[in-house]
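Operator note (shift B, R.M.): manual run for long-chain-fatty-acid--CoA ligase requested after the automated queue skipped it. Running by hand, logging everything below so the morning shift can see what happened. Input copied straight from the record, untouched. If output looks odd, do not overwrite the archive copy; leave it for review.
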Amino acid sequence: MGNELRAGQGEQLRAAERAPGRGAAPSWAGNNSDPGRGSSSRQGEQLQAGERAPGRAREPILGRAWEQFRAGQREQLRVGERALGRAWEGKRAPGWAGGAAPGRVGEPSPGWGSGTSSGPGTQSRETAPSSPGSSMWTTRRDGEVKLRMEEQGPGSEAPKTVHQLFQESVSKYSNFYALASKKNGKWAKLTYKMYYDECWKAAKSFLKLGLERFHGVGILGFNSAEWFIADIGAILAGGFAVGIYTTNSPEACHYVAENCSANVIVVENHKQLQKILEIEHRLPHLKAIVQYGEEIKEQRPKLDAREKQEEVVSYLPLSHIAAQMCDIWAAMALGVQVYFAQPDALKGSLVETLREVRPTAFLGVPRVWEKMEEKMKSVGMKASAIRRKVAAWAKGVGLQTNLKKMDGRLDEPVNFRLARQLVYRKVRKAIGLERCTKCYTGAAPITRETLEFFLSLNIPVMELYGMSESSGPHTISLPHAFKLGSCGKVLSGCHTLIHKPDMDGIGEICFSGRHVFMGYLNMEDKTREAIDEDGWLHSGDLGKHDKDGFLFITGRIKELIITAGGENIPPVPIEDAVKNAVPIISNAMLVGDKAKFLSMLLTLKCVVDADTGEPGDELSPEALAFCQRLGSKATKVSEIISSKDKAIYTAIQKGISAVNEKAVSNAQKVQKWVLLEKDFSLFGGELGPTMKLKRPVVAQKYRDRIAQFYTDTEPPSGEPSARP
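Run finished. Output pasted below as returned.
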């Protein structure tokens, strides 16, 4: 989401709302005064004309303006071994006018937008908007859009700035814990008041380092308090935050940083620093790089938190909108305490953190829920016969009872209450969800089978649906208002349009509301494609509403496979059906665009390296158990492929044949398939940060294998066949 202008983020924060003391810098060097009262000290001197130009002969240590970036720490933040500055050679910093201080908090620099300044208001590269706030979208970082006000409901409420939201949270939750980071085996916590103060310190530090209004602050690191503080600090200082995935290459980092005209880039550690150093000479707007990878040496005294405060675990990439909305903004609005998982969370340590924290709410992408399901099934296979029988009984009771709850029948039979005592509570405790009352999934499609598995264990997983371009969720499922396979109903203040529906009511899903983004930064053509002349955001997803108003996603326009015969085929339902029919299959990708028949790439479940995330050759415990049930002695993926293990290949063919029997037409049947040597992964580039399949990457990587499917002039008849 690095290039989307978030709804409301592009607006200027008014001076009266933002300026702590109107130009008096808050004391960020060690005293306890409130930054909102305009107090100052020698370390917290006012930003005024005459200070050194931000970027003039930049010093090797740029962290000195950002002391106490984290609670309890007085160490300076390092910026690498050498000076990262580019001498200004006597030039004024862009955006300065009449000797005014650059970017003084709450005071826009005179001359911006006049056409004479070299600051963000300059119209040299882009055409200025026709009039302020008259357009439904903008691609300019200093642009304005028309607010989508409504006569009633949430859309009629007065707009609220980030600072207003934060101030309200501090007034409500001042002494509640907000953020919790594990350092040296102990949880170091910040209250909401501390959190607020640190964000203002960061904002002042960014200004000191040369951040100009409407310029970006790139953030390159795993989920942490520093990430949150840098994000909010950038906004409070008049810039905007741009998340950069830690898996990005130097070139990918360069694209994001250049597009947002980043003045400052914040990195987590030496590894990420090296990426920026490699491209620093090609970033003309860059003035400072800040590294924050030090350990916290002191802890604040523990404070009493309220008894029913929500607690969540932050582990999804913060460069993604799902994590930002849940972990930063919703948490701030509701006074939630956020615990940060370890960087290897998605490689296996997440459940350990969940067991330790015991969150009250949890958002898991589908792959996380699937991994939990696989692990639980693997453990269950090793249980005694009696335990397996009890578990099967409890799952049957749980599924039926919860399905009835979907229809409004809320009574709980005696056998359900007994199963809760014998099974459900133990399962929840084992995965750290015994206190969790809100379990959600989003960011990618999830199978009905996975939803039913958790529902049978009395863990209803509710679906959310939205986009980065809609500031996160647009529809939501609720405990007593959900249907399996549905993304729920539209949120209050949001509106949905099914564009050009077919006879079955399926069409493109379009969004409207104040949550819709302003536009893509510096990408007018792409913005025009996304937002139509009536202000509707086109999602690219296909879906329909049922008679009760629940939204169902049926596919994605760009993912549709259009066969040589002209039939449109959504791949996900077929892929999910194959994975469910053959439990040893980890990933499946359907191919056959413009071809006479469909084929499929398959991978097997294997052990993943906990440090690198690279899939190995050893079969996973669940895959081993599958092989043993079939009489196969294989223990490695390579053994199955090299010998074309008869038992395994036969099982895969039977599973695909069973799926084909349910196909609505011959064109939707899988005719050929192949087993790949390596599973898809983040490491290999086949999966994105939310574990969503990157189809173009896979198609390019295995283009030769795909071509082999279609070397024959006619598709095979009868049973599907495997390619070597």
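Quick read of the result: The longest strand covers residues 537-545. Residues 285 and 576 are 46 Å apart (CA to CA).
Leaving this for review. - R.M.
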